[in-house]
What we know:
By secondary structure, the protein is an alpha/beta fold. The protein is built from 8 helices and 10 strands. It is globular, with a radius of gyration of 20 Å. The protein binds S-adenosylmethionine. The site of S-adenosylmethionine (SAM) has 20 residues, from loops.
Amino acid sequence: MSMIPEPPLTAFGSNEPRRWVRVPAVVDGHLAASQGMILYASQMVSPGDAIILGAGSCQEIPLPALTDRFASVTLNDWKESLLERVSISSEQTSKVHRLVADLTGVTVPFLERVAESLGVTDDPDRAIERIAELADAVTPQVFSTGRSYDLVVASCVLCQLHLEACNQTLSLFGSKFPEHLQRFRASTRWVQAMYDLARRMERAFVETLHGLVAPNGRIYLSETIQGCFVHPDPEGHWMTDGMYRMTHTLELSDYLDARFHIEEFGKWVWVMPPFQEQGPVGRIYKVQGLILSIK
Ligand SMILES: C[S@@+](CC[C@H](N)C(=O)[O-])C[C@H]1O[C@@H](n2cnc3c(N)ncnc32)[C@H](O)[C@@H]1O
């Protein structure tokens, strides 16, 4: 188990004092490394079925190469609008299947219970406690399609699984108690409950990966292990208040147990400069990628 020097990155930011430092020069390697590892994994398996979990708009997925190689490619995300943005050539359309589904199986029922609980109290402190209790009570599901796949791709989705539950809860709470939103956001009870739920979702997701992959198949698993926000100063230098931890520990392999075998390991940096479409604050992530077989 690795040492953890950073506070976790949560949707609530960090309450700890941070020190501003200049960002050293960094080179982005995200698309090339992600696509390269996925292609490499695709060559290690039979060209039957592939599934891309949390596919989004497939920015880091070499989709044309995968549709060339595999008989079928299933694209999953819970946001249909993202899957609709994926461009697929007319020759490949029949091979690609879009599967809109929540990989945790619990987001909608949790949010319904949150909305219900907010409807029956005018006391913000009671609401915070109740929402934390609801989060504590959630048991994430293992996702299955009833089939197995030669290649299972999970590119930067593991630590994102709780975000909808988290962000929508903040939004529901903010609509009911706008003047108490910052206090809710920073409350230790809520932050801990959501942190623990995120980790339970990740554990269920590792079971999902194991359940979806065929006996001789491969899993490509990558994640942003650490991230920082990048703010340009008036001279144009990039400044940051330091790295945040996004995963349980600083080693992606710490999620795996003895059923998984690491075939390949990669590390790279993903740079989203400030002043691009993401807005005036940029982001830099340290990413790790693994190609896994199962025993
Ligand atoms: C960082 S993005 C991954 C981007 C994607 N791999 C690509 O190549 O563009 C994470 C994706 O996971 C999806 N996602 C997050 N939580 C999910 C969940 N519980 N079920 C299904 N999809 C989820 C998000 O909608 C988003 O598209």
